[in-house]
Amino acid sequence: MFLLSICQWLDSTRLNAFMRMSTWFFPTFDTIHTLGIVLVAGTIMLVDLRLLGLTLRSEPVAGVVERIVPWTLRGFALMFVTGALLFSSEAVKLYHSPAFRIKLVLLALAGLNALIFHLTIYRDVANWDPAAAAPIRARLAGLLSLAFWIGIITAGRAIAYGSGYDLG
Amino acid sequence: MARAPMQFLDLLPVFEWMESTPVAQTIRHSAKLIALLESIHLIGLTLLLGTILMVDLSLLGLGIGRSPASRIAKELRGWTTAGIVIMLTSGPVILSSEAIRCYRTPAFWVKMALLAIALIFHFTIHRKVVFEQPPAPRARWTAWLSLGLWTSVALAGKAIAIFQPPD
Q: B77: which residues sit within 8 A by CB, 6+ positions away?
């Protein structure tokens, strides 16, 4: 299959060889990867909770997004680069992990949800920000984002405990 | 076996008892339960670090709008507490499933020491500085120390899984 051959090729690259050069690389990048996810989820959850009206109600949504999202993106960069390195070190193994597939799908859905939010309802934020409650579509985006990120964290842990997969 | 970290108060029997409980044994033999509990623990950490980062950024002058750190902290306090409660509840349950291994792993004791320091710091100096009006010059190092302490707790936690106990 196409995806499997990509994974097999990745396992034969220099990136894979690099990751195997030291037993320290995997746990080190894994640790940075976890911190990256915590930064992404920890910051985006605050935006989600604000959209749902569950915190920071005295601050306008636009102000919260403006200050928090740059940190989300920094976390995402950390998570993406280290995630790619971790993946390249055992691509075929992860190809066979159901939890890994679920994690990728949830990640894509979280990205799509954020993209749709920013391109549609958030464009109009100046109009609805002064209102007591955010519009239903904004609240829905917040709720979905919360659910997706909780799912991503859980799927990530499940990868480590899946069949034949040792915790590194 | 590694020497007991505290000779005057040997906690090994407590750890042995923890691991012998039915709850610990059930979790120990279920990869799914361990993964689930660790996920809950991580979600608690996410809440805790996310909210504390926002308060510390405010202390550093990088907060939301012109809102003082005290207002941000007051609004986020409930979620910070929720994060701490989730971690302090799920943590001991995870610990019980491998209590004896943790007892012998230095990273575990490092994490407990850092956690104690971070909690005391958070509820004393950090809280006092956050609510000081007008903001004191020591706000800067308080913010950095807070970020450093909590990150260290998280790193030490990861180290428990990575480092095996010495023989």
A: none
